[in-house]
Every structure is written in C-alpha cells, then in structure tokens.
Write a structure and sequence with these properties.
single chain; alpha+beta; four-stranded antiparallel sheet; 57% helix; 14% strand
C-alpha cells in the first residue's frame, strides 16, 4: 500500500512538480523510467520520478538601496577582511540569488505541469450535471385544454473513457515528457553558466586586485628611483633631465595605480552581477594568487570532445527537443485514425406536478421519480477537416527536421568550442611559465642595473628602462595567471563539467 501511495505521489498528473528540479539551487538528475500499460493503446509509461519540489517563501523587494543592502546583509554569509568568502560560498550565493536560475526553474516547473496535464488524457472524465426548475405549459384535448404546472429535477452522472485512440495520448504525453526533459537539462546548463560566470568574475576580480598591488609596488619603486636620482642630483652626480625622466616615470606609475583601482571596482561590479547582487553588496572575497593552479591536461582533445558531446546538458536538451518533435509527428499521424471509447451515464428524473382543465382536474399534486442510464461504445472518426490534419503533419515534420539541424549545429559549436579552449588552455600554461621566468629575469636585471647605476656605470635611461621592464613583467605574470584560471573555467564550461564546488575540472 505504501508503494502505491509513493508512486501516486510522484505521478505527474497529481504532482507535476515532482518531475521538475527540486529547487533553483540544485542540479536536476533524471530518474529511471518505468514501463507499464495504462490503456489499450499505451506501451510506454510516461511517469518520470523525481524529488518533490520545495516551497519558496515570498520575499518583497526592498524599495531603496539602503533597505536592499540591509536585507542582503541579513541573508548573505557574514564576511570581513579577516574572514573573506571563498569561491564555493560565492557560487552558493549566486545559485540562491541569481534570477536566471529561478527563471529556468520556473520554466521547468511549467513544463512539468504541462506533462501532468497531458497525463490526464489517460484517465476517465466524470461529470455531474443537474438540471431542474419549474414549468407551466398546456396541451389540447378534444374538448378542452389542460394546464400543467410542474417542478422537475434531473440529476445525471456522466462517465467518458477513451479505450483506443491509436497513439494520440501516448504521443502527446511523450512530447510533453521530452519538453520537460529539455527544460530540466536547460536548467542544469543555466546552473553551469551561472557557476562559470561567477568563477570567471572571481578570477577577474582577483586579478584586478593583484594588478592594483603590482601597480602600488611599481609606484613605490618609481618613487624610490626618483628619490635616488634627486639625491644624486643634489650631490652633482645626476642632471636635471635625469631627474625629470625619473619624475615622469613616477607620474606614469601614479596613473597606472589609479587605473588599476578603477579596474578593481569594475571587476567587483561584474562579480556581483554574476551572483545576482547589486554592485554595492557587502562582499569580502578571498585572494587566490598564492594558491596552486589547476592541473595540466592529460587527455587528448578528441577525448574531451567526445566527453563534451556525451555530457553537455544543452546538447541533451536539444536531443530531448528532437524526440518531442518526433512524438508530435506521431501524434499528427494518429489524428488520421478513429477514436474508440465508452460513454455512460446514470441519473434520475423527479417530478412534482398538477393538472387542471375541464376534463382533468387534480386538486392534489402528483409526484413521480425513476432512474435513467445508458452505456455506449462510441467511434469517432473525422473524415475531412479542410486539410488541417495534413498541414499539422507537415508542420510537425518540418519542426522535426529543424530540431535535427539545430542539434547538428550545437554539436559543431561544442566541438569547435572544446577544440579552441583546449589549445587556449595549453597556451595559457606556457604563457604563465613564461611570465614566471620573465619576472625572475626582470627582477635580476633591475637589481643589477640599479647597482651599476649607483656605481656610475649605467645611465638613468638604462635604469628607467629596467624599471619599466620589471613593471611590465609583473603585469605579464598577473595577466597570464588570470588568463590560465579563466581558461580553465571556460574549458570546464565547454565540457559541461562545471561543479557547484567552485573548482574548475578540466
């Protein structure tokens, strides 16, 4: 008995939300399908199992920026400079707050409701109809007219059940189930997209902060050189043009620092947008520059392409759309065949009447009641509908071919995307190794040039050039590291393997 109750609880006609994602924060996972006939023309059961959807409390929107921030501070995990939020926590906030995940979730729930609606065709329809009222009418006898006054009530219970429709219900429900499957996979892809955008925004923000630190160090270095040149000029060991050149480099370093600070603000706003938060939301985010980098690739590009074609949710969603269009073709073909069903009714008639006339005069009201019923086998076969069925079939076949072409297009896009990002990832690793070597060489060259300049063996131009090269090497290393992390996240997204843990898994 409990098993039957559990099966009925997950029945899409009774509880369609059980076939949709459970929440806007959890990946939908397909359940094993069960087969078993429900009617004479049904072969495939269309009852996917899933967990019951949880309810979502309503939350009114804040009317001002201050109220919105106050509301966010109560909802977001506490963070500070001493206890910053990790990437996994940022992903969790994004899955909870980003409106795109909720839109995709609601679309999946709507598709689940449409599946439940289509499953209703497998059940009989039961209708109660009661008519009643008062009447007064007359009819003629040979010698006089008779007036009838009566009150009549006719309750009737009507039952209709389709026995055989040659696959209409099966095709309709199959199309709805495939559309739901596509919506669920699209929901999964939307989750992956949000996670990827949070990862990419996090890496950009971390890189922007590293660039700000590098710009601050470059400014300190330029200021130190300017002070040294100024001291040497005071001692008569440097000229005014040397001093002006050093001050020019310092001014450029100040400009670069302000630009880097602007980049931090912009990157922070992009991260907040990816998380579904306003730009001024209270966020303190950890730094990643000293943490280990993602691993190098062990697989060949062809292996990764095969994996992407087998696992990407957007491809699975398009496959489901193709199957849905095939089911609509089957439905359009079945419309040319008859429908065989049962119709039955049971009811009664109750009268309360009186007769008055010259030949008939009943002073007392008469009452009568009896039951009525019928049981019919009905065959319905529309023979001509103005070519509507032919055109519905043409339309269904055209949509099927369109979905097949769209699937091929998505497969090519996925193949090219994985191919491109694969080699971008390998190139990013080589660039990072080059950036590490370049920074080490630039630091060594700068120290040697500064010592040589202090001994009077190098010119100010050589010292400033070494300083600029060192600053450029710092930016190069930071950019190459940020590019490697961003490419790692992009590769994971291209493979369809983005996880909520926040770590790219190429």
């Amino acid at each position: 008995m409990s098993f039957a109750c559990a099966s009925f609880e997950k029945n899409p006609a009774w509880n369609p939300d059980a076939s949709a994602p459970a929440s806007p924060e959890e990946t939908w996972r397909p359940a094993k399908e069960k087969t078993g006939p429900q009617s004479l023309d049904e072969i495939l059961s269309l009852t996917p199992g899933a967990s019951r959807a949880g309810s979502e409390p309503d939350r009114p929107a804040a009317s001002t920026s201050a109220e919105l921030l106050e509301d966010l501070e109560r909802q977001l995990p506490p963070s500070s400079e001493a206890q910053p939020l990790e990437l996994a926590e940022l992903v969790g906030i994004a899955l909870s707050e980003n409106p795109r995940t909720r839109q995709a979730w609601r679309r999946a729930q709507a598709a689940a409701a449409r599946l439940g609606e289509s499953m209703g065709d497998y059940y009989p329809t039961l209708n109660l109809e009661v008519t009643g009222g008062a009447e007064k009418f007359g009819f003629e006898f040979t010698d006089s007219a008779v007036i009838v006054r009566q009150v009549q009530v006719e309750p009737e219970l009507q039952l209709t059940y389709v026995l055989l429709d040659f696959g209409r219900r099966t095709a309709k429900a199959e199309a709805a189930r495939r559309v739901l499957e596509a919506a669920n996979y699209s929901f999964n892809r939307e989750l992956q997209r949000v996670i990827y955008e949070v990862q990419a925004g996090f890496y950009r923000f971390d890189s922007a902060r590293a660039l700000e630190q590098a710009a601050q160090r470059n400014l300190e270095l330029a200021r130190s050189v300017r002070e040294d040149v100024e001291e040497r000029r005071r001692l008569g060991l440097a000229t005014r043009p040397d001093f002006l050149l050093a001050r020019q480099v310092e001014a450029q370093a100040v400009y670069d620092l302000e630009s880097a600070r602007t980049g931090v603000f912009n990157a922070r706003a992009q991260l907040a947008l990816a998380m579904g938060l306003p730009a001024n939301a209270p966020l303190h985010v950890e730094r990643l520059f000293d943490q280990p980098l993602p691993p190098q690739l062990d697989e060949e590009v062809d292996e990764l392409i095969d994996a992407a074609l087998a696992t990407r949710p957007d491809l699975k969603a398009q496959v489901a759309q193709l199957r849905a269009s095939e089911a609509r073709v089957a439905k359009a073909q079945a419309d040319f065949l008859p429908i065989i069903g049962l119709e039955g009714s049971y009811g009664g008639i109750w009268w309360d009447y009186s007769l008055r006339g010259k030949s008939v005069n009943t002073t007392d009201r008469q009452q009568d009641a009896y039951s009525v019923y019928q049981a019919l086998v009905v065959i319905e076969w529309p023979l001509f509908e103005g070519f509507k069925r032919f055109n519905r079939l043409r339309n269904a076949r055209a949509e099927q071919r369109e979905n097949a072409a769209r699937l091929r297009e998505l497969e090519l896009e996925a193949t090219n995307q994985v191919w491109s990002v694969y080699y971008d990832y390998e190139t990013a690793y080589r660039k990072y190794d080059y950036g590490v070597a370049l920074l080490a060489a630039s630091e060594e060259a700068y120290e040697a040039t500064r010592e040589s300049y202090g001994a009077g063996l190098s010119t100010i131009d050589e010292l400033l050039r070494a300083e600029r090269d060192l600053a450029s090497a710092r930016y190069t290393l930071i950019g190459s590291r940020a590019g490697l992390l961003a490419t790692s996240a992009e590769l994971a997204f291209a493979l369809g393997e983005v996880t909520a843990g926040g770590s790219p898994t190429p």
